[in-house]
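Researcher: Here's a chain I'd like modeled. Treat it as a single chain, no partners, no ligands.
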Amino acid sequence: MTVVTPKFGMGASVLRVEDRAFITGAGRYTDDIVPEGLLHGYVLRSPTAKAAFNITTVEAAKSAPGVHLVLTGADLAHLGDLKSGVMQPQPDGTRAPTRDIPILCRDRVNYVGDAVAFVVADSRALAQDAAELIEIDYDSENAAGATATALDPETPLVWPELGSNRAFSYHMGDKAKSDAAFAKAAKVTRIDFVNNRLVCNYMEPRSAIGEWKADENRFVLTTGSQGVHSMQYILANLFGIEKSQLRVITPDVGGGFGPKSFVYREHALVLEAAKRLGRPVKWAGDRTEHFLTDAQGRDNVVTAEMAMDKDGRFLGLRVNLLANIGAYISQYGPFIPYVGITMSTGVYDIEALNVSVTGLYTNTCPVDAYRGAGRPEAAFLLEKLVSVCANEMGLSSDEIRRRNFIRPEQMPYRTATGRLYDTGEFEGHMNAAIERAGWKTFPKRLDQSKANGKVRGIGMATYIEACAFPGSEPAFVELNRDGTVTLKIGTQTNGQGHATAYAQFISEKLNLDIDKIHVRQGDTDELKAGGGTGGSRSIPLGGVSAARAGEDLAEKIKRIAADELEASAGDIELSDGVARIVGTDRAIDFSAIAKAAKKPDDLKGFGEFLQDECTYPNGTHICEVEIDPETGATEIVGYTIVDDFGVTVNPILLAGQVHGGVVQGIGQALTENTVYGEDGQLLTASFMDYAVPRADDVPSFHFETRNVPSTTNALGIKGAGEAGTIGSTPAALNAVADALYRAYGIGHIEMPATPARIWATIQESIG
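Model: Modeled as a single isolated chain. C-alpha cells:
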C-alpha cells in the first residue's frame, strides 16, 4: 500500500511560513515596540554576592536629569514575593520551606545581580546614570559559591535561620532492595562527576513593557514568554488583583529554552512603575544582565554506582545527587531534579534503585528549567555510567547496552521510579545508528588518526525521556469572512515553527492552502486559558487538539455548504478553499460560506485532547571525535542520530529541533561552563569567557527516525523539542572519554572537555 503524504498535512516537509517576516526584518519583538510616551527602566543590582545593605539616600538619583521614578524595596511593601509552588515531598512527607524572590531586596542581597533599586527615566542611559547616584552601604560577608562544598561545616550559610544550606531532600526507590542487589553483585562500578552549570543564551535578551490603562482599570504587560496565561496568573496574585485586570501579550520571541517561562522581577517592576507614572515603562535587559540574573541550568554534583552480575547485567543503581538551586527557590526549581530522577533507569531493565537528592542553597543566580529540565541530567548520569561499566567489564559499549535494554515484549514497562513506558524498540534504533555511523569500521579510522599523530574516540548514548506531560491544550478555529481560517491556541512559539506545524493539522482537515491558515498565540484577551510551551508539549497535545478542531470546523463548513447547494453534507468535499458536491462542478467557496452562516458559532471549531500519560521519545546518538594531543583541541568528525518520535509531523521542522538541541548538548560537553569564584562573583559573565559552540565546533549531522507510534497520544506523536540535548551531551563526552581511554588509559574527564582541560589531563597521565 502506498501512503501519499498530503501537500500540507502531517508528514509533509513544509517550509516555515513565519520565516519570510524574520528574514526580511519584519519580526516584531518586545524591544521593537514603542508605545507613545514610553519611559525606560534600569535595575540597580548588587555588586556583591552576600551582604546586608542600607540605602542611605536616593535623593540625588530622583533629581537627576530625565528621572521620573526611583523604587526601592521599601516602596513595594504592598507586593508579595515571587513564590514557587512545586516543592515535592521529602522522605518524611513534609515539604521544605521556600526562600522566595523579593521584587526588590529589602535589607539583604544574596547573589551578584540581586535587584536593589529600579530607576525610570526618559532613556535607559539616563536611568543608568541616575542609578549610580544611589548611595548604598553594603556590609559584605563570605559567600557560599560552590555546589560540592555547600554542606561543609565551614561554608557560610545563605539563610542562617535554616541552620544549613540544605534546601530540600528527595528520595526515590527501595533502599533495602538496592542494598540486596549490591550485596550479591559480581562487580560494582562507581563514578563521580559534575554536571556543569549553564547559561541558556537565547538570541533575544529578556525585555518587558508595562502599561496602566486607567480607563479600563487594568494593566497590560508585553513581554517575550513561553506562555502568557501562567504569567497572568502569577502576576495577578502578586498584585492582589483579578486575572481580568491584567492583559499579557507576547509578540515574536527570539528563543526561550525554559528560562523565558518564568515570571521575573522586571515584569512586576514595569507594571508598578507604569501605574505610578501613568505612562508606559520598558525594561530591556542586556547580555550581561542575562548572564547575571536569568535562571540558569543544570549544576549537579553526582556519585553513581551500578551493581552488575558476572555477565554485565545490571542488578541495581545507587545515586547521590547534590542539586544547586541558587540563592532563592525559582518558579519550577525544586521540580527539576525531581522529574530528572524519575528517569533514572533510562532504557535499561533495572529493578533495584536507590536515589537521594539534596537541593542546596548557594549565593548564586537561581537555577531552574533549561532545555530538557532534569531529563538531560538523568540521561548523562546513566549513559556516562554505562559506558564506564562497559570498560570495566571488558564489553563493548553496544554489547553492554544490548544485554540490559528493556525488550519490546516487556512493553508497557513500569520502571522502578513508577514511569510507564508504552512503546520502545531500543536495540532497533541502536543497531540502525551503529550501521549509519560506521561503528564496525572505526578501527580503520583509528589507525589513520594514530598515523597522523591524533587520538580518536567514538561514543554512544541511548536515551529515553518523559515529555508532553499529562494534560491538555484546547484549540479554537474560526472561518473568516475572507475565506481564511484562524487558529487560537494557548502555547507560545519561541522559534520552533508553530505557525507552520499547527497549520498543517488544520490544512489536512480542511484541504486548505497553508498560507490561508493564521495561527494566533500570546494574548490573554484572545484566549482565556492555555498551558504555554514547555516539556515538548505543544505538538503532542496542541497538535492533536488542532486536528480535532479542524475536523469540527470541516463538518460545520460542509453543513452550511450543503444547505446552500441543496445537497447532503455527506456529499460535500473540501478542496482549495471550496466546498463542492462530489463528482460535480457545483461549488461554493469558503468566503461565501462564511457570509452564509446564520450564527457565529457555525463558523467555529473546537478541539481538545486530554492526555493522561507522558510520551516517551527515545533514540541513539553516536559521536566520533579526533583529538590533537599537542593542543587538546577536539574535532567532532561524525555525528549520527536515530530517534523514535512516534510520528513525524514535519521532517524539516523536526530536523531543526534536533540539530539545535544537539548543538546545545555538545556545548555543555565541550565548551560551556558557568564559573563562580569563592566570593560568589560570576567569572564567566560574557561571551569573552563563556564559550557557546560556534559553527566550526559542530559537524553536519546524520539524522533519521525509526518511529514506533506512541499509544498514549491520540496521533502516536512523541514530543521532540528537548530530545536533542538529552542524547547529545553523554554521546559527545563519551566519545572524548573513549579517545582518552584508548590512548592513555584515562578513565575520567569532567565537562566541559575543553582543549585546556584535555591537554592538562593528558599531561598528568603521561607524567
